[in-house]
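Appendix B. One record, verbatim.
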Amino acid sequence: MQLVLGTHNRKKGIELAELLLPWGLALRTLAEVDSPLEVAETGETFAANARLKACEQARHLGRWVLGEDSGLAVDALSGAPGVYSARFSGPHATDASNNRLLIEQLAGIPLEKRTAHYVCHAVLADPSGEARAEGVGECHGRIRTEPAGAGGFGYDPYFEVVEYHRTFGELGPVVKAVLSHRARAIRRLIPQMLRLMG
């Protein structure tokens, strides 16, 4: 059974593929299918955006699609950047510009009050475009004042998992595949997915 990973983000696609690899699914990315949709993320929550990405793409392609939406919520910023994590610094945002704006907005806030968490909402849609399974994961930490590590993407060099005294940028893919919000969401989704697709 083929599963399409409903993301145009190459690094996110790699991470999802690595998490799903042990389960023997035939995975395809949007780059490997004909005429995928560019789904507008118009939802006000991670759940709504994940459903849009999965259901609209599945209906369009006539295939099983895994869609997910994820981002960073910073307590001192009332949960921002939230669903706007990828475009926090504007329509032409990059990881560097998003991180710059985040650090500017947290200026003067002490480390112990820079608590934050990553959220991931993953949705599996069937070829008719109906959402059939969902999984949610979170990973809690805080935002450092200086980046550390070259791994990961997005806000990873600033996001410290306090118990490890390391950022996601430093922890590397093996540890991240256990601790991350995306890993936790996929772990919750897999039993439902295997029942439906097996």
